[in-house]
Design brief:
Elements (H helix, E strand, L loop, with lengths): L4 E3 L9 H11 L3 E5 L16 H14 L2 E10 L9 H8 L5 E6 L4 H15 L5 E5 L9 H11 L4 E6 H7 L3 H5 L8 E4 L10 H10 L11 H5 L7 E4 L4 H7 L1 H16 L2
Parallel strand pairs: 1-2, 1-8, 2-3, 3-4, 4-5, 5-6, 6-7, 7-8
């Protein structure tokens, strides 16, 4: 069975959702990701949550091209979070036949965060969605070990770890930790390269992650070693936001190069 590739939301580098679907289809992706809730202050994703006309246009483009929706971004669990806040988001992404929800934790109390994550998994069950917890060095869930602990504590079929090669490289985790992570605890993996060396400040980590990742093979992350540990049937999200490069060669060409390089990395 051929592996599926999804064009990560950030790989669109700012194009509108309908154009993103067209780009994904043109270059051989099977799936796509959209962001409906902001990733942080100052983030303004396309208005898929509010704009019914845009939603219908995206649905039509997906029908026309055969592109399916892999994951929706993003639920951030904060100390004050109330899960009912996300009901509209969940209802909306269900209309796009989404499979996975990207989850981040903005809570330094990991016991409380784990309780909220488990409750979120239970809320997702009627939607047949999974909660894919992404560890990021500047968030409450900073590394692979913490993400695995929270996911295993949830003890729920919807609970999963989202492994991102950039964050793995930056968080100080080891390859043997990834090797020991049960495949059943993952639904998809995000792949990109990144500059090495790098400024480890939170501000710079965030800037690189959101606007300046690199096509696999163009940075210094040991992607070859990571690639050997990725299951052959794992869904791959190609996540290469690079605003400067997209301005030079176009978002479509960057998405094409990123997919070609990722397939080469994985032997596809």
């Amino acid at each position: 069975m051929a592996r599926n590739y999804s064009m990560g939301y950030l790989t669109g580098n700012g194009v509108d959702p309908v154009t993103a679907v067209r780009i994904a289809a043109e270059h051989g992706y099977q799936m796509i990701s959209f962001r409906l809730l902001p990733a942080g202050p100052g983030d303004h994703p396309p208005p898929l949550l509010e704009d019914d006309k845009l939603l219908r246009e995206v649905q039509a483009a997906m029908r026309d091209t055969g592109i399916q929706m892999a994951d929706a971004e993003m639920i951030r669990l904060k100390p004050e979070t109330r899960l009912e806040e996300f009901t509209r988001f969940l209802d909306r992404i269900a209309q796009l036949n989404t499979r996975h929800v990207l989850v981040a934790i903005d809570d330094t109390d990991l016991s409380r965060a784990a309780d909220n994550f488990a409750a979120l998994c239970r809320k997702l069950a009627p939607y047949a969605l999974t909660a894919d917890l992404e560890f990021m060095p500047w968030t409450g869930c900073k590394n692979l070990a913490q993400a695995r602990q929270i996911v295993e504590a949830a003890d729920h079929p919807a609970a999963a770890v989202l492994f991102d090669t950039l964050h793995f490289d930056r968080c100080g985790a080891r390859l043997d930790e990834f090797a020991a992570l049960p495949h059943t605890l993952m639904n998809y993996v995000q792949i990109c390269d990144g500059p090495v060396p790098y400024d480890p400040s939170d501000a710079e980590l965030i800037r690189i992650a959101r606007t300046a990742r690199l096509v696999p093979g163009e940075g210094g992350i040991d992607l070859g070693a990571i690639a050997t540990l990725i299951p052959k049937d794992m869904l791959i999200s190609v996540e290469v936001p690079n605003h400067a490069q997209a301005a030079q060669i176009g978002a479509s060409e960057l998405a094409r190069r990123a997919l070609v390089a990722t397939k080469r990395l994985l032997g596809d």
